[in-house]
């Protein structure tokens, strides 16, 4: 079995998970905000299964675009904060150079390359899905109106889009996004529930309070990093125990470190390529 990782958005689309109901899809959005990678072997197997059912490159692209509508992972959310296509491409290249991917997709001087590192041949459906991520985020940025401020998609917004605002996890995320960090006791009190009841409700929805709190912290940290705040300040304001804790959490989620993300958002346009080339 080929070792290494694959990005969850393409793998999820290849597994046809866009057919999940809203509740299951919301839970997956929260979980992939915390950890956005799957084994590469799963990714290739899913592509083979979809090909056997008659999927074309365009079917794969549509499935990925559908999945990205509810994607909360830092690798995608950072693209939504980018101020230009050049910055989006730099983020895309930074991700691909930072993660243990058997196939690395890079954009160099406007040309897309697929570099194999241990993979037994490329896969056209996987390639179509990977490029769909870049094209979708770039299109969002290009369609932004002049002067319009870019921002993350909140988890509460994803819940509304999926029609699952009544879920206990969606209500808890809305509070965490609006008011900052709360532990289980605090969340239960605000929601008018006992801690045991809230835990049972979240478990039935496939989530834990830890999942929700970590996802909310990731969102706050990304927004602060894009504004140029220092790493220590970001860690403190986002609710991490310390800078090292933040670095481990964000790297586990998307492969990139807070330091490299901050450097890219601070870089002048001419130096974006240099930053994105760093592992």
Distance between the termini: 25 Å
Strand order of the largest sheet: 1-2
Give the overall pLDDT as a whole number. 87
Number of extended strands: 4
Strand content: 5-15%
Nutshell version of this structure?
With 279 residues, the chain is mostly helical.
Chart the SSEs and their pairings.
Blueprint: E1 5-7, H1 8-14, H2 22-34, E2 37-39, H3 40-52, H4 57-68, H5 74-81, H6 85-98, E3 103-108, E4 111-116, H7 124-142, H8 155-162, H9 168-179, H10 184-190, H11 195-204, H12 209-226, H13 231-238, H14 243-254, H15 258-266, H16 272-276
Antiparallel strand pairs: 1-2, 3-4
Main features:
globular, single chain, two-stranded antiparallel ribbon, 2 domains, mainly alpha, Arc Repressor Mutant, subunit A, about 65% helix, two-stranded antiparallel sheet, about 280 residues
Written account of the structure:
Helices cover 63% and strands 6% of the residues. By secondary structure, the protein is mostly helical. A two-stranded antiparallel sheet has the order 1-2. The chain has a two-stranded antiparallel ribbon with strand order 3-4. The chain is globular and about 55 Å long. 44% of the residues are buried.
